Batch of 2 targets.
Target 1
Amino acid sequence: MERVPILKLGDILIVSIQIDLDDQSVLALQEDLADMVVSSGARGVIIDITAVEIVDSFIGRMFSTIAAMTRMLDAETVVVGMRPAVAITLVELGLSLGGVRTALNLEKGVAMLEHVRGAAG
Amino acid sequence: MTVPAEAARRRIVDLFLSSEERLLQRWTQLSGASPGELRDLYQALRTALSSEDGDFADVRGLLAELSRARVRQGHTPSDTARLVFSLKEALYEVAEADGGPEALRGFVWFSRLVDDLGLYTFESYTAAREKIIIDQTEQLLELSTPVVKLWEGIVAVPLVGTLDSARTQVVMEKLLQTLVDTGSEHAVIDITGVPAVDTQVAQHLLKTVVAARLMGAECVISGIRPQIAHTIVTLGIEFGDIVTKASLADALSYALSRSGVEITGAARTRVAVRAERA
């Protein structure tokens, strides 16, 4: 099973998904990420899915799960770089990812996290 | 059995080859086609029938070409098929004049051959027409979905004409791709040119907005005319938290203010400038 690397940049954790996700990797990623957020005290998580071309409902739900999980740990999650085809697939699957922040690319994602934290004080 | 059939076949081919002028004249009369086209067809048939292996590729090629030309000229498919079938009647008269049992038997064989060619003509006609329809549909799709940039970070899609699933799909993909390519965070979907909005169209619009939101962009729907607003409310369609504006100008000013651009009394300044010039 391949594991997805989690990179730390300041108080932001960046997860760039470059592999074809199977259910096991998704579950492992959720656990790893929760551990990392706690151990590093990160305030924001960015999931970069620029390279993801195929999604199913399980992966779609993963975003919501991770967002809810990190919010419990006081970190905001932003999903960035979603491809049009992926967005259309998720909509057709009936997943609107309520409660998940999204941004067009990594840069805008970082800016969004800073903005959110600025607003929160 | 084989020998008489073979003989009958030879007899009818002989008749066909020997009475060129008579056949062509009668054929032209019956089909109402131009003698030139028929002469070409006759020559191709003559070559095919005289050849050993009976290769009708040239004849079919000619027929396909003829069908395509007829589609463009607006002939009906029956007319086009009749052109081929009328050869039977012309040849039958020749066979009848000959009167021999071999000629009549051979005519049955020949008749089947012409039937095949006629059906082929029919198929070519349909294929040519299908192609025209497909081409036009594609052109329509390309024509009708421009995505225009209104401002740095703001794009707009002016929708014109009836929306169906296929068109919405194209619009959706094109808009989302443009958002990625230009890094725009705001999109305006303008439906001023859409004559009617039913539940299905509304559903498509909602999907597009949600997809854009998933990618991290915000969509505003503008250009909702009074009667469309009325229809939407009557149908009970919920747009939820999607921002809708009456005009493209409103939507642009909303998107500008959302992206942090300030507008300071532009209208008043312009009036002042005009007054100064006067």
Target 2
Amino acid sequence: MEDEFIPDNGLLPGIEKTPAENDPDATEEIKGTGNSFYQRILDNEKVIRVLRPLSMGLLILLIIASLFAFFINAIPAIQEIPRVVKIVIENSDELKKDAVYKKQIAQIKRDVQRLSRKYNSYTSGQSYLVINTTDNLFCLYRNKKLVREGHCSTGSYKLLKTEEGRSWTFKTPKGRFWIQGKTTNPYWKKPDWAFVEEGLPIPPQDHYSRYEYGVLGEYALALGDGYLIHGTIYKRFLGMPVTHGCVRLNDEDLKVIFNTLSIGSKVYIF
Amino acid sequence: METEKEYTSADRKYKIIVWIVIVLCFLIYYSIMTLLAPAKKYKELKNIYGFRQDEKKPVDERIFTDSTYLSLLKEKSFLQSKVAMAESDSIYLTIDMPDSTVNLEINGVVVHKADIKKMKVSRMLSAKNDYVILSMLSNPFTISKSIASIEKEPLMIRMAPKDTSEFKPDIIPDTADYEPVNYILEMDNGTRLFIYQEGKLRSGDGIRLFIFNLRYRLINAGNTFLRVVTFRVPDYQPFIKLRIPRTDAKIIYRALPEQGQVAVYF
């Protein structure tokens, strides 16, 4: 077995020490370069004059940011730490055999069943219509099943004001309604705002200019307070909030809804 | 001259240390006061919703440690809330945590259903088997205040034309208009419901949510600060945070009345 040759300089063969490594004085000089650089910065009053307020400013900013984070983020998180509600679930067998316990469980089960029955009874088995005014969509239900859905147009949320101080808000009312009347080939008796909106003088109540035929489609279903579900000649606006409060539908959907809903049927608008 | 300079430097150091100690003491005091807040809130809830023994019909209190009873009580509480709201003639919200759904209802009829994508509940409310919390949940929450990134009713004001020459037909509404939907509903019982749109649909959604939250947090931090500096325990408001699709969040916010009601099932 031949011994491995290690040269005098302690390095593997072929690797030479750099001049600096060979000369201890040169090494000191290199180490000293860094220190002297910082020393030179510290000795330079101009630099110090800039650096000191800058570092102080940064420190103050850091403190403010930390305090801000403490009050805004840490405090709500700290409030979630304590466990104030201590729940002990024992499920004692002894209790389960107790007659009073059995009676109470039976009572609460009866209550749950009664409430459940009552709650389910609210959803009518009859036909009803649901109108979504945010997305301008409708859903028609029969026997608690969806039978048709599609686009409609609802109130534009336009607030019309006159210089005399009169105002009208064109929005579709929300909540539960029911069909109060059904009409075929309806006509529109224009209210005052229809004239005000176009800058026309308001005619007397039964003036012929108030009556418009063929603009509401073939059918109309009354919801009360003058609000109708009707057809439209502006079919390109379906799915948009453009009406004065009524609900507009296309001809096919209107026909199905007219034939499905009867007087008294519920309409839910949200 | 040298002595005077040294004295000034030492004095400054001393002052800094004193200030640091004062600030740290205040922060510790502040933290302790805020830590006391949940316990104070629970005590208040216990006074309102806690169990009271009826002398005529005494109840074995061990029943409140029975999971079967508590599970039935939870179901009953939710149904009670829903029935109470269905009796009213208003639009309301039901949150079903186990099913991960939120329902918009009118008179007991579900008119809109949305999936909850993410949820987070404060520690106090997550104690869902506690009698006090269950009793609190058996009453619907009523919205007392709402803060939102969208308008409840997007009203457009338009002055009527003086004559036909001034009349301009309506412009087709810009349905492509985009705004992030985030809102906070503060309830009458001190609970807060945070509803955020799911995901960042457009660039800037994240920063807008951050600003929206920051504004709300600043108001709350101000209130807490005022209470703490006047040596009062701050208010603790348990929360429910939900992330749901943007369209659903918008529908729910626009549909709920100003003082709408909410029922929660854990």
